[in-house]
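Person: I keep going back and forth on a fold encoding question. Show me how you would write down a chain together with its backbone fold. Please set it down just below, with no commentary around it:
Helper:
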Amino acid sequence: MQQVLSVPSQLGVLLKAARKEAGISQVKLAERLGISQSRMSHMELNPGSVSLEQLLALFGALGLEIMVGSKNPAKRSTAQAPDAGHPSARHVANEPPAPEW
């Protein structure tokens, strides 16, 4: 699944669709994340209120990842990802700590 997001409401639609595609109820996903079902519902309905840390945990639980790209392919950056020995690369490779909800 690839989706371009421009506004927060699109994120809520994406999260709900990904959860349903995975066959996971709000209750089960909330249990995996250690939050209440009502908080899970709130995150889908009001994704603008979700922190980046919470969003990354939610994406991880759904088997999704965030990719960032230029809107204009002609102006794409030539920046490269850090090598595997770089501390930030290790953080990406390892399971992130559980967020505080």
Summary: Helices lie at 8-21, 26-33, 37-45, 52-62, 87-93. The radius of gyration is 15 Å. Residues 8-21 form the longest helix (14 residues).
